[in-house]
Structure formats: C-alpha cells, structure tokens
Amino acid sequence: MIDWVTLLLIVIKLVVILAVVLSMAAYLVLAERKILARMQLRHGPNRVGPFGLMQPLADVIKLLTKEDVVPAGADRWIFLLAPALAALTALLAFAVVPFSPPVTILGREIPMVVIDLNVGVLYFLGLSSLAVYGVALGGWASNSKYSLLGGIRGLAQLISYELSMGLALVPVVLQARSFSLTDIVMAQQGLPFLVTNPIAFFIFVVSVAAEARRVPFDIPEAENEIVAGFHTEYSGMRFGLFFVGEYINMVILGAVTTVFFLGGWHGPILPPFVWFAIKVLAVAFFFIWMRGTLPRLRYDQLMHFGWKFLIPLALINVLVTGAVLLWLGN
Amino acid sequence: MATIIFYILAMTALAATGMCITRRNPVHAVIYLVNSLFAVALIFYLLGAPLVAAWEVIIYAGAVMVLFLFIIMMLELAPTEQPQGAGWRRWAPVLLFSLIILGCTVALMAVDPDAAEGVPTYYASPRIFGYTLFQEYALAVQIVSFQLLYAAVGAYYVGRTPRRRQEAG
User: In Å, how far are A155, A218, B62, B108 from A214, measured between CA atoms?
Assistant: First the structure.
C-alpha cells in the first residue's frame, strides 16, 4: 500500500526545493555581477528594475527568444541533451541535503530532507562525478576544436580533483561515524568539523572550486585560450542551461560544504533554516570573492597542484585523523 | 512491486549492453554502457546493497567510463568500419557463448532445484558491509590492493619517457 501523505510531502518538498534553488541560482548570477563590479570599481547591472533586480528575468527572456543553433556536423541528440545533463546532475544532489531539523506539523514528524539515504555522502560523490558527462559530451558533440579541447580539459580536471574531494570527506565520515548527511550535521552539535579538521576543509573547498569550474580553476572555459571551451557552439537557452547549471552547482556545493564542515543548521538565536541559508550564501560569496581576486591557473599548474600536493595531503590527513580518533577512543 | 522493477531494470541493462557492443561510434557505445551500469547499480540497491550500488556509480560510471571517454576524445577515434569476412564469423562466437551460459544455467537448476529461488534478500548496511570486508576478508582485500599497486608501478615503468628508460638501462 502506498502511503499517499508521504508521497504528497515528497512532491511538495521537491517543488519547493526546485523553486528555491532555481531562483537562488538566477539571483547568484546577478549577485556575482554586482559584487565583481564593486570589486572592480564599477556599478554593475542597474537598469532593469530597482537596483537591477529584474536583470535575471530580462536575461531569461533574451535567451529564450534567441535562435537555437545546432552546428553542421554536430551529433544532434547528444548536443541537444548535454546542457540538460549538466543542470540535472547538479539539481539531483539536493535530494540528500538536510536544511533544517525535523519539523512537527499536525502531530506528524516531517524530516526536512527529501530522502535521508544511509549512503548520502556516496550519493553526492556519485552525482558530482557524473556532472562531467554534460561538459564532456557537450564539448565532443559540438564538432569544434575549441569545444573538444574544453571538454577534454573538463574531464581531466574532474578526474584529478574528484579524488581529493572524496579523500577530504573520509575524515568527516570517520568523525561522524555515518554516511548519512543528517547524522553528520547531528555530529557537529558542539563543534563544526571546520574547527576540528581545518585541513580537510581546505582540501574540500579547493576541490569543490575545481569541480564547479570556478576561477582560478575555470580552465575548461578559458576565454583567452579556447574561446569559451565546451559551450563555444551553444546559443540561446541551451547556453543558459549550462550557465545556470554552474550556479546551481555553486548553491549545492555551498550547501554540502555547510553540511560537512560548517555545522549545517546549528547556530544560536536565529531559526535553523536561516542559519543554513546564511552559511550557504557565505560560501557562495567566498567563491565570488575568489573570482574577483585570483588569476587563472595554467593547465599544468592545476594538474601538479591536484596530484602532487592535494592528494598526498588528503591521504596524510586521513591517516592522522584515523590515528587521533583511535587514540581518543582508547 | 520489487519484481516488476527488477525486470524493467534487467531489460534495460541487457538492451543497453546490446546497443553498446553493436554501436560503431565509440562515444555512443560509452553512453549506452553508462546506462547499463546505472541499471545494474539500481539492481544492487533493490537487492539490499546500497553501498555496492553507490560504488558501482562512483567507480564504474563516474571514473572508469569517464577515463574511457577521455581516451576516446583525446585520440579522436573515428567510428569503426564494418569488418570483412562472412557474416557467420561475426555471429558464431556470440551464439556459442550464449549457448554455453544458457546450458550452465539449465544444468545448475536441474542439479539443485533450490538454486532457482536464489539467495534470500539480505539488507547490508554500510557498517555491516565494512566489517565483513575489512575483518572477515581482510587478507583478500590486502592481496587485491597489492595487485593494484603492482599494476600502478608497472604502468609507471612502461609510461616513462624513452630517454629516461635508456638511462636506467
């Protein structure tokens, strides 16, 4: 027998999450343009609506009315589906993120997460490793040299940084003694893991920036080398999907950084949900700040940094954390 | 319910694998294989092994196939041409191996009728799975990881630049 109330609750949660994440992604685009402009002593978009607040809407209308070009010689179906794949894998990861402790409504305890998988951490890692297919297939299907180069760079970068990201999460799982994201937040009741394991936090944030292809790791789309990388040939809303996908990715990565290291919804005075939103936005602001500050890495620098510094550091960190936990346990 | 989902997934896995080995375009073959791996991962989940399902996606779909795709894109492999020779030469091995597998399955069921019911569903939580793997089968895990280390060292030796290999003798 299907439990209709549970099903309805899941659908409501999905709709709310979709609406919140999409509007957050749209406004992150505006926030990024505004903050970058301020850092470069400009004003940024300020013409559409008060303080330029309607700019995302204007952008969507512009992108939707543009011609949707498919280049000659492109692999049509893969070309058309790749942008959706990029946005989809980012959205799906939100299913396991708990954004508030369970709420009791009408005597029914409702967990504030779509599904609390006991392999939640691995679910997130799996989806983040699938995210590269959108980039790689989009670059390949375009049948253009610049796109292909961008796609190959994206693949190589993701393979390299996925390892250090996974290894940075091992100490978190060791400390929380669970793969479930809700249990990980619960384990940070006293101290967030940022305090107890700052090295893992550092490795995770760097790897996350590389996974999201943010500056200084935006080598797959380096404008002054390969035009726009994997999305060179895309136009209209398909380009928009790649673009929005990147910002959805920023929201989700901000959310998982909050869950894994910043203590999730825990915080004094303010309600848990507000704390969660503040922490996610703080991580997003950090990424934007980094973009306004750091120059782009060279391709070989990126590879060397990942394989020769981050991964060994992450392995040593796993070893040390394990040893300390064992010592504390005895 | 679970039986219906199992059959849908099994059909998907078989169809995707079939498409994978018949495609001439290597990138299309990779996409079909990823689909097949997803279906297999979900079957593992259905059988009560969420950890194995997650690893199937992370390691096979997320790492191994990504590497395949990387190599294909790097070498710009063109779609392969139709092989020469009579048609039966291509189909005979497939037919032979299919018959062998079918024969084995039928023989197994004839010898031991209970085997047809399969193993009882058992839920393996990550904790139980980890203890089984790293306590009960610790030696096997160590041997396999040593083998992977040999492979890595071997690949490193083969992959060195020719000049440095000459210097080393």
Answer: 15, 5, 21, 56
Question: Is-contact B122 B48, C-beta < 8 A?
Answer: yes
* Domain B1-79 indexed as CATH 1.20.1050.10: no
Q: Is A81 on the interface with B (CB under 8 A)?
A: no
What is the largest distance, in Å, between two alpha-carbon atoms of chain B? Answer: 65
Whether chain B has a CB inside 8 Å of the CB on A122: the answer is yes
Q: A270: helix, coil or strand?
A: coil
Separation of alpha carbons A136 and B20, rounded Å: 19
Reported pTM: 0.80
Of A137, A151, A159, the CB nearest to B63: A159
Domain boundaries, chain A: 67-329
The pLDDT tens digits of the residues spanning B81-93 come to: 666 666 677 778 8
Nearest to A152 among B61, B62, B70 (CB): B70
Q: What distance in Å separates the CA atoms of residue A174 and residue A326, rounded to the nearest whole number?
A: 10
Taking each helix axis as running N to C, give the angle between helix A55-65 and helix A4-39, from 0 to 180 degrees, rounded to the nearest 10. 100
Mutation site for B-interface testing, chosen from A122, A123, A144, A181 by largest number of B Cβ within 10 Å: A122
Residue A38 has pLDDT above 70, yes or no: yes
Domain borders along chain B are: 1-79
